[in-house]
Amino acid sequence: MTLTASAPPASPKQAAPPRPGAVRRAWQKFSPYAYIAPFFTLFAAFGLFPLIYTAFVSLYRVELQTPGDMQWRGLDNYTALLSDDYFWLSLRNTFTIGVLSTVPQLVMALGLAHLLNYKLRGRTFLRTAMLLPYATSVAAATLVFAQLFGHDFGLVNYVLGLVGIGPVDWQTGTVASQVAVSTIVIWRWTGYNALIYLAGMQSIPSELYEAAEVDGASRWRQFFHVTLPGLRPTIVFTVVVSTIGATQLFGEPLLFEGSISGGISHQYQTLGLYMYEQGWGFFHLGRAAAVAWVMFLLIVVLVGLNALIARRRSRKEAVR
């Protein structure tokens, strides 16, 4: 009788856990990149490539009739813009309409958000109604406002006539037409910004208001010393977004009178309209691409200035 010796079974503590294979380790390492790859693919195809290609086209003479016939011009398209009076006029109009629409818009939005932050009846309905102008088509809103600002049968001139003011030519006057276009922008975006401010107000701790009320601060003092400091990041965000939107303003001035020149004397032609006129009115695609890049650089400068001002203000308050 023979006895065969066998090794004792390994205890659970001595058994090593199976190591993941090479494929599994590689997947764990690169799977996050696979998840975000669709976004970056779409961004590269529809965002980055058009931006780079526009910069490339801006260095050539390209006509809409013959887009394949490209002639090298270097920076001539940009120097031609600097010598064009209509470019500077559109740049000034963009700045003027941007100020006329952005400042009242954000001030009114801040006031509306402050009112909606209190316990009012029908708050849900009012908050929903705030988004109706934003949900309205820009074409429909602009066409309605164009009728309201009509010279002969417009409702605005009718109301002005009731208080003894003569009819205003809202479409040919420089200041009047810019005010009319700014009114459309204010109507469409005030409610949207009001809801953003309302969300920012609701994130402010209620203990700050309770402490201010104990100290005897009125509602106005609470607004200026508690609400506004707590809303500073939100205000910076809305200012930046409104600045970008004002620089790219296109639909409202285009549909207000239906002219790509922005009125008879280009009195409310923005940079967006000027770019469209150069590309699809005069068929100069190279110059239109140069205008697009000027707008892009202008937005970068304005956003950088807003960020710099906000950072300096934050540093001053931190020192205090």
UniProtKB/TrEMBL annotation:
Pfam families: BPD_transp_1. It is a multi-pass membrane protein. One of its GO terms (biological process) is transmembrane transport. Residues 1-20 are annotated as: Disordered. Keywords: Cell membrane, Membrane, Transmembrane, Transmembrane helix, Transport. GO terms for cellular component: plasma membrane. The chain crosses the membrane at residues 33-60, 95-116, 128-149, 290-310. Residues 91-306 form the ABC transmembrane type-1 domain. It is found in: Cell membrane. Its main location: membrane. Residues 9-20 have a biased composition (Pro residues). Belongs to the binding-protein-dependent transport system permease family. This is Cellobiose transport system permease protein.
